[in-house]
Specification:
Strand content: 15-25%
Number of helices: 4
CATH topology: GMP Synthetase, Chain A, domain 3
Radius of gyration: 12 Å
Shape: globular
CATH superfamily: BolA-like
Number of strands: 3
Number of domains: 1
Largest sheet: 3 strands, mixed
Distance between the termini: 36 Å
Structural class: alpha+beta
CATH class: Alpha Beta
Helix content: 40-55%
Strand order of the largest sheet: 1-2-3
């Protein structure tokens, strides 16, 4: 079982984030990732980028249920109105 703070550390160590929010119950996690790295990328490419930061934990099964929303800073700003 992974702690949300550890997942956040892995994502932040692997990519630049303007905002990273993570919630979960120890087995299932939901994340909001806002990054300039997503500019010009498709939704699938954005997800692949985040998964890349967690590959080792996903491969070992230590982390198996993660859903997330990936936004550019501009998209995040527009959503917040």
């Amino acid at each position: 079982m992974m702690h949300p703070d550890h997942i956040k550390e892995l994502i932040l160590a692997g990519m630049a984030c303007d905002l990273l929010e993570l919630d979960g119950d120890g087995q299932h996690f939901q994340a909001l990732v806002v990054s300039k790295e997503f500019v010009g990328k498709s939704r699938v490419q954005r997800q692949q980028r985040v998964y890349q930061t967690l590959k080792e934990k996903l491969d070992t099964g230590e982390l198996h249920a993660l859903s997330f929303k990936t936004l550019t800073p501009e998209e995040w700003s527009a959503q917040r109105g």
